[in-house]
Design a protein that fits this description.
about 100 residues, 4-stranded antiparallel beta sheet, homodimer, alpha+beta, 5 strands
Chain lengths: ~100, ~100
Amino acid sequence: MTAMRYLIIYDITDDNLRLKVAETLKDYGLSHIQYSAFLGSLRRNKLNSLIVDLRRLIGDAVENVQIYPLCDICFRRRKMIGKPKRYEVAEEHREQKAAYF
Amino acid sequence: MTAMRYLIIYDITDDNLRLKVAETLKDYGLSHIQYSAFLGSLRRNKLNSLIVDLRRLIGDAVENVQIYPLCDICFRRRKMIGKPKRYEVAEEHREQKAAYF
């Protein structure tokens, strides 16, 4: 079973829910490429499992997650303007980490 | 010259710059699908012109815009979780509009 690349973007107003969604996407091995966007490869069963997890998290809330598959041709033609930002740790952990400095 | 569909996502901390980028994307006829994402079709010359405009706006700031082409196959396989949100007017205009009610 081959993996496919996906771009996942979200618009979640609720801070707690946004953090949970970000942590879920990270748990699936996706990379945090923008404040509200993750990118990475998933096999079909993992994608389905992620969709189930996200549906459970979002429930009936007026919040929004969108998943776009990106074939190799689409992915190779992407463009970046500006500079990449870093989102290695969740907000909670960032505060914890800051205490070490 | 055929148009191609693009998903444009941005992570811009500066409020003023974010508003300018959103207005630029709207001026190019793209649809505001999430707080920090627009989607729509552009001919190649329009895409190039947009990239020039965005580069000029972003300059050397540590801000980030990413453009992903979406072929028909990728686009048809997109998934939405939760509910669509509405972003019809820019923040400034929303305030002006609110004054009419």
